[in-house]
Hints:
Blueprint (H helix, E strand, L loop, with lengths): L7 E5 L4 E5 L4 E5 L7 E3 L10 E6 L3 E7 L6 E7 L4 E7 L3 E3 L2 E3 L3 E10 L3 E7 L1 E2 L4 E2 L1 E4 L3 E5 L5 E5 L3 H5 L4 E2 L4 E7 L7 H21 L8 H12 L2 E2 L4 E2 L22 E2 L3 H10 L3 H17 L7 E2 L10 E2 L13 E2 L11 H9 L1 H4 L11 H15 L18 H20 L3 H19 L2 E2 L4 E2 L14 H4 L8 H14 L21 E2 H13 L3 H11 L12 E2 L6 E2 L5 H18 L6
Antiparallel strand pairs: 1-2, 2-3, 3-4, 5-12, 6-7, 7-8, 8-11, 9-10, 11-19, 12-18, 13-14, 15-16, 16-17, 17-19, 20-21, 22-23, 24-25, 26-27, 28-29, 29-30
Amino acid sequence: MSKHTYNTGIIGNCAFLAHINKNTNVDWLCWPRFDSTFIFGGLLDHDKGGEFSIRPEGEYESEQHYLENTNVLITEITPKSGGKYRITDFAPRFYQHQRYYKPLMLIRKIEAIEGSPRVIVKCEPVSEYGAVKLTVNRGSNHIQYQGGEENIRLTTNIPISYIFDEQAFVLNETKYLVMTYGEPLEAPLNSTAERFYSETVQYWRTWIKHSSIATYFQPFVIRSALALKIHQYEDTGAIIAASTTSLPESPGSGRNWDYRYCWLRDTYYVITALNHIGHFEEMEKYFSYVTDITISEMERYQPLYGITGKKDLVETILTDLNGYMGNQPVRIGNQASEHIQNDIYGQVLISLLPLYTDHRFVFSERKDSVHWIQFLLDKIEHTIDEKDAGIWEFRNMANIHCYSNLFQWAGASAAEKMARTIQNQQLIDKAVSLKERAAAHIESCYDPVRKVYTNSAGSSNLDASTLQLIMMNYLDPASEKARDHLAALEKELRTPNGLFYRYLYADDFGKPKTTFLICAFWYVEALAAVGRLDDAQREFGNLLQYSNHLQLFSEDVDENDGSQWGNFPQAYSHVGLMNAAYRIAMKLDRPIFL
Length: 594
């Protein structure tokens, strides 16, 4: 069986994300939000998912690349019958009228490169996850699709009859396809599309120029930063794990989840990555999202929330869709929102710590400090002795997890720093007490014979999440204890090809069949932290082979053949890459000319 990779690239503008296949089809597009129904969902069902393709007659070859330092995607098609053409896909984003312009608008520019190729445009959007076929109404220079939540309009300079009849035509001049949701394009087509293109290119290149990205494997870090950026829903600041749902962790596994939500348990890693590249605007928006949840959430925190902070994410199965490559079930919503994960209170405290320790933020941004520091410390106090589902969201297993207590320890440490900043002795004393209690739980996971921390108290199982004991300095990276712990984990969880399993014990769905990519990047960070810098560089370089043709990474990788699986692209895999590259770059710390 050949290696499986995802043959799509993503475009987006922080209001929506779209996946463009190398075969020119828009394989995935949810409107009006990341978590809305798909308008195009061929990723999950070729028949019911609709289609938006620009293909030639007969066989062809395809190449795809990003316009350098942008989220503008270029697909070049070479028909076997002759000629060649280029499709430029982008979601407009630029600064206008003192705010960011990011409409629900997909622009596709088609231009001949060689000869006079003939192309066929097919456009069939759907609604309600393919259950609703939209009514098609034709205008003089546009097509209107009705029957969904809002009208969708396709404005073009291609003769409408060619699109209606799916008839081939000669590409003898530049053509434009502008699809909009709700508001139609009420402006000249050609000049507007070209202006939006140039403005969008300029926006992305300026954004990268304003990023602090070291030279170590810089192109991969740049692509990861660009991918992470468009996973942020700018309206609220939430950052989603992935734009897709139900792409299986491995074929036939049933581990098909909806990742179009924001996991608080990943807050620390996301904030760290954004901080490394110096993007405070995105950090501040994310701060606001987390703070809004903190203020409104009077009960227990959920592990994940909707992009507007919505709590009710009921998981349902869509039985009418075939699923990706026939993999079912197709899930909408995520039952993990009902789980108990006690690391998240520490995650939130750590994520807000920069407001107190980084002097680029002004004091007025630390609103109502005493109230919410006390609130979060109370949450840690009430859950510190409690069993939970852990970082991997076990559905039918609960333990005193080492990882959960690590983040309670780290959160209490962050709270102590905050309390010292605002000079509140009562909060300082409480934070110190909770640090000690959390550390006692962590130490209950230590196996002195194997010289390793296990996944939970009383267990012999190892877990890649405990690599964080080293990176977060619970274990002194220079200590023998840290080196022993790392050695034990890599002996059991590292694969011959340099990948890393989360764990190898059976969970609710049996034993995992694929490795978890972010764990491999954590491993790289741990190697660098303990001083094994040559090993860290070798392992990091090795992991780059597991991207697709556009340097985009999935959630899971098959150890046997390097296949990509899981939701794609996975924002947190890219976060892992960014943080690992940064840690190595800081360790190298050598002049650029060497």
